[in-house]
């Protein structure tokens, strides 16, 4: 297990980052980066955001994304890698929210409480 990735992407390093810069694309191809919290979930990374956010609309139109470790302000701390984002159903969104809360503690709880029912889990698999 874990071999044959020809160096590939270091999911461990991405998963260990406190924030990743999640870049989604507008219809005209303009990249829009946003720093987000994340949790490693098996061979993917999961994030939670507001369902009404621009990110979600852009992913619906184009699931191709770029991700990179970053700081809270979105300054990149590593290489961007290509991934594919998939919007999750309410049950999976709840599970992802739980993972985020567990990882980020009280702060995670407070920030995921905002927006209540308007949450959307996003699962990102790296090419």
Give the CA-CA distance, first to last residue. Answer: 17 Å
* Series of H and E elements: HEEEEHEEHE
**CATH evolutionary superfamily:** Electron Transport, Fmn-binding Protein, Chain A
Q: Helix coverage percent of residues? A: 25-40%
Domains (count)? 1
Radius of gyration: 14 Å
* Sheet with most strands: 7 strands, antiparallel
Number of helices: 3
Mean pLDDT: 90
Describe this structure in words.
With 127 residues, the chain is an alpha+beta fold. It has one domain (11-126): Electron Transport, Fmn-binding Protein, Chain A (Pnp Oxidase, Chain A). Helices cover 30% and strands 35% of the residues. It is built from 3 helices and 7 strands, in the order αββββαββαβ. It has helices spanning 11-16, 54-61, 90-113; strands spanning 19-25, 31-36, 39-41, 44-50, 64-70, 81-87, 119-126. The protein has a 7-stranded antiparallel sheet with strand order 2-1-5-6-7-4-3, sandwiched between helices. A hairpin with a 5-residue loop joins β1 (19-25) and β2 (31-36). It is globular, with a radius of gyration of 14 Å. Residues 1-6 have low confidence and may be disordered.
Task: Break the fold down into its secondary structure elements and pairings.
Blueprint: H1 11-16, E1 19-25, E2 31-36, E3 39-41, E4 44-50, H2 54-61, E5 64-70, E6 81-87, H3 90-113, E7 119-126
Antiparallel strand pairs: 1-2, 1-5, 3-4, 4-7, 5-6, 6-7
What is this entry, summarized?
This protein is of the alpha+beta class. The chain contains three helices and seven strands.
